[in-house]
Amino acid sequence: MEDNRRLVEKMSGGRVGYVHVPDTSIGGWASFNRYYFAQAGKDAIIIDERFNHGGLINDYMIQVMKETLNAVFTPRNGKDWGTPGLAIYGPKVMLINQYAGSGEICSPGFPPQLGR
Question: Is 10:57 a contact under the CB 8 Å cutoff?
């Protein structure tokens, strides 16, 4: 899936992030945390849950993606920064297919709750 991340990076000029979620258990949460937070600050994110092996209800990842900008700090010298600092505030897209496992049955219904 690293090839997909590189392709999204190239095609978007670095503005859009990409995260593959292989399952909604320990491995999937580790993958999500590693790749989502590493791309904090991007304008948008693609969450790829195709061929997901299932696991638990995906409420953790949904809660993380619901983060909204609470405030912006403007230092005298330097760049403005928002809080929470490790978030992607823009659009989120979820790719799914018919091969997603049982833990992913709820995930496609969650994005409307993100308010996006």
Answer: no
The 10s digit of each residue's pLDDT in 26-53 is 888 899 999 999 999 899 999 998 888 8
The pLDDT value recorded for residue 104 is: 55
Hunting for tokens 């320990």 — which residue is that? 26
Entry pTM: 0.81
Yes or no: say if 20 and 1 are a contact pair by the CB < 8 Å rule. yes
- Cα of 44 vs its chain's centroid, Å: 8
Considering only CA atoms, which of 107, 100, 12 is closest in space to residue 64? 107
Amino acid identity at 25: S
Helix (H, G, I), strand (E, B) or coil at 34: helix
